[in-house]
Amino acid sequence: MNSWVVTNTIAAWLIPPGSLVLLAGWGLIRLRRHPRSGKALIVLSLAALWALSTPWLSRTLLQTLEPEPADPLRAAPAQAIVVLGGGKYYNAPEYTSADTVSEPTLVRLRYAAWLHRQTGKPILVSGGSPEGSSVSEGQAMKAVLENEFKVPVAWTEDKSFDTFENAHASRATLKPLGIDRVYVVTHAWHMPRSQAIFSKAGFDVVPAPTQYATNFRLTLLDFRPYAPALDDGSHFFHEIIGLAWYRLKSALH
């Protein structure tokens, strides 16, 4: 079992819904000897589960992480575009059972392709294969950009397991070429952590976030339980824990 599996297993129990399952379980254990506090813990876990699964709250939480929208084309030009992987779609039957990019990664690739067409800057795709698949995220990203978006990929970084490794592996590739200033493409909620890590690695970062947590209008539907909203809430807590962890690592080094 590699460190990526261990880290993500621990994280799954620290963030909702895993942490709420643990909270409810603790309440059940306490019911016999401490019925009042046991019931309170169970009610609290259910209430938190409902709240975090509402689109309004999950969207609001993500918005606290997102940078203010800014056009990267108005900043001083960067020398290259770095696109961070966001997962894979395994054994896709409609693509001859090959591994390809996941929906979040596809969102990032679409914006990177647009940014490349606006700037003409070369692209580096970054993402390894921490789960052990024979196709890395970087390889899958390159295939989609070149075959479907008709955009060339200059460099493929396919060894990294997380954002920290994305940054340092990208730096190892681009520094010898004299490339220090880069557009970093990732989800808006992931940008604060990505920018901090890439800056720490030695890059001059031009943030190029995509997929903001926007809303058409507020309705009653924004307050009903909705499974995708729970996923968004999990992203928020994952980023908060990730930011704290990387700040601790930086302090120790």
Output the keywords:
253 residues, alpha/beta, 5-stranded parallel sheet, 9 helices, 7 strands, 51% helix, 14% strand
Structural class category: alpha/beta
* Binned strand content: 5-15%
Topology order in helix (H) and strand (E) letters: HHHHEEEHEHEHEHEH
Strand arrangement in the largest pleated sheet: 5-4-1-6-7
Fold and architecture overview:
The protein is of the alpha/beta class. 51% of the residues lie in helices and 14% in strands. It is built from nine helices and seven strands. The strands form two sheets. Strands 5-4-1-6-7 form a five-stranded parallel sheet. β4, α6 and β5 form a beta-alpha-beta unit. It starts with a helix and ends with a helix. The mean pLDDT is 94.
In short:
With 253 residues, the protein is of the alpha/beta class. It contains 9 helices and 7 strands.
Write the layout of secondary structure elements.
Blueprint: H1 3-14, H2 18-30, H3 35-52, H4 55-65, E1 80-84, E2 88-92, E3 98-101, H5 103-119, E4 123-126, H6 137-147, E5 155-157, H7 163-174, E6 181-187, H8 191-200, E7 204-210, H9 227-252
Parallel strand pairs: 1-4, 1-6, 4-5, 6-7
Antiparallel strand pairs: 2-3
